[in-house]
Amino acid sequence: MLSSTGERLSEADLTGHDVLVIGGGNAALCAALSAREQGASVLLLESAPRQWRGGNSIHTRNLRCMHREPTDVLSDAYLEDEFFDDVWRVTGGITNEVLAKHVIRASETCTDWMKSYGVRFQPSLGGTLHLGRTNAFFLGGGKALVNTYYQAAERLGVTILYEAEAEQLVFDDNRFDHALVTYNGSPRKVSAKSVVIASGGFESNQAWLEEAWGEVSRNFLIRGTRFNQGKMLRSLIDNSAMVIGDPTQGHAVAIDARAPKYDGGIVTRVDCVSLGIVVNRDGKRFYDEGEDFWPKRYAIWGRLIAKQPGQVGYSITDSKAQGRFMPSVFPPEQADTLEELALKLDLPVDAVLKTIDEFNAGVQPGNFDHSVLDDCHTQGVTPEKTHWAQRIDEPPFYGYPLRTGITFTYLGAKVDEKARMYMANGELADNVFLAGEIMAGNILGQGYVAGFGMTIGTVFGRIAGTEAGNYAKD
User: Fold this and answer.
1) Could you give the CA distance from residue 450 to residue 219 in angstroms, rounded to a whole number?
2) With bands split at pLDDT 50, 70 and 90, how would you rate the model's confidence at 2?
3) What is residue 13's predicted lDDT score, i.e. its pLDDT?
4) Structure confidence by residue, pLDDT tens digits, 9-29
5) What is the rounded distance in angstroms from the CA atom of residue 251 to the CA atom of residue 143?
6) Residue 189: what are its φ and ψ, rounded to 5°?
7) What is the pLDDT of residue 169?
8) How many CB atoms sit inside 10 A of residue 427's CB?
9) Nearest 5°: phi and psi at 271?
10) What pairs with residue 244 in β-bridges?
């Protein structure tokens, strides 16, 4: 057996570590690095091949950070109360307030810690993002981030195995004993003094999605890795972990319907929703496109589209929207008339024209400003558009077909502030720590605010690694 560095491993190398980290994305890597900071020996198991390492983290761009004053990459200030208000609003109050505030406060130290391992940042982008004050962007995106962490982990002596899939966790009462792992096509028994499970959600497991959502889930696309099958989550449930979250809740956005089934990533997201209207396949609007800033609302649109006939929607804009948003990797359908655009999108022409005529008639005079919650709204239209409402009347016209793009699921296991996992009987597991998507449902009961998943993963990855390392050394 060979490690990531080409070093030959013995069976003893799979059983003699202080900390076992299961997962290969941001949370897992933060845990591995933090455990090494405590002097613990660490084995990290990544189920994906090396070229696909990093899980959903490779598709990310930023994390949301509390800060008291401007920094080298963040403007103004973003304090705890405002940050928490944003989380409270998007979750509708379905959040663990103690854990949410714990993450928010800890996020203030994240960028400096990340820089200490070589992560570099860049100024935020413009357009519909409105994130220059709240979110720190990684230079080179998530792929560069995880590559930097992997290099640091190898440099510090973390043993990394690729295509090493943990199939099952074996507990002795409330204590982790060992994991059953498939590596190089063969079963292996892997033990450690403590374990950090940061293996993601179940979003790539079609059978589990269908169990939660029904047949409509067959029309969903998966924005991230195909390797998040939820095996460790299922094993935790089988070992009587305390379950938290709704299996139908998760980070689900509107993405281009032409995206691939897996790994379309950020470039398939359609960001012009707030600049126009969205109709279903019957040509009817179904939700307020201008409810709030896009980073606070983009993650509701996947669920909205999932509830529409055929699980499909269509974003329609005119020439006034061009240059105001980050375009999808796929070019929009374009036409000189709305009739022609409806035909290109295979929509009922009369219904689309009626919807747009009614919308245009309802647009009230105002001062359009996409950088603020402006006074451009509709009146007498159902649903109303509360901000950025402009008549769709200047050709050429543009249309994007939309599907539900699942990023990650919120069903997980309950943890405390030290990332320790609760058992169903209310007791804490003895040596089990969780980080990332597998515990994000403690804080994200529903909804999403941009960059917060990476914040949760970074903060709880560091906590889990530190606590697991200290447990093992003690």
Assistant:
1) 24
2) very low
3) 60
4) 545 467 789 999 999 999 999
5) 20
6) -105, 120
7) 98
8) 12
9) -105, 10
10) 412
Residues β-bridged to residue 397: 335
**Site of tokens 């992560």:** 119
Confirm if 401 and 421 have CB atoms less than 8 A apart: no
Domains, in order of start, for the chain: 11-247+410-473 (3.50.50.60), 252-405 (3.90.700.10)
What is the model's pLDDT at position 129? 57
Q: What is the DSSP string of 115-169?
A: HHTT--EEPPP-TT---TTTEEEETTHHHHHHHHHHHHHHHTT-EEEESEEEEEE
Q: Angle 73-77-79 (CA atoms, 0-180°, nearest 5)?
A: 125
CA-based nearest residue to 194, from 434, 431, 464: 431
> Strand pairing of 159-162 and 42-46?
parallel
- Structure token pair of residue 201: 């959600």
| Side chain identity, residue 422 | Y
Q: Which long-range contacts (CB under 8 A, 24 or more apart) does 66-70 make?
A: 66/104, 66/105, 66/107, 66/108, 67/108, 68/108
* Residue 168 token pair: 């099952």
User: Do the beta carbons of residue 317 and residue 392 sit within 8 Å?
Assistant: yes
Question: What crossing angle do the helices spanning 80-91 and 97-106 adopt, rounded to 10°?
Answer: 140
In eight-state DSSP terms, residue 283 is: S
For the chain, the straight-line distance linking the first and the last C-alpha, in angstroms and rounded, comes to: 30
pLDDT of 172 > 90? The answer is yes
Give the C-alpha distances (Å, rounded to integers) separating 84 from 74, 117, 366, 412, 417.
18, 28, 31, 21, 17
Provide CB contacts within 8 A for 112, sequence distance 6+. Answer: none
What is the C-alpha to C-alpha distance for residues 46 and 166, in angstroms, rounded to an integer? 9
Contacts of 191 (CB under 8 A, 6+ apart): 14, 15, 20, 177, 178, 179
Q: What are the φ/ψ torsions at residue 416 (nearest 5 degrees)?
A: -105, -170
Buried b (16+ CB within 10 A) or exposed e, 256-295: bbebeebbbbbebbbbbbbbbbbbbbebbbbbbbbbbbbb
Give pLDDT tens digits for 378-402: 999 999 999 999 999 999 999 999 9
178 bridge partner residues:
170, 191
Q: Record the pTM.
A: 0.91
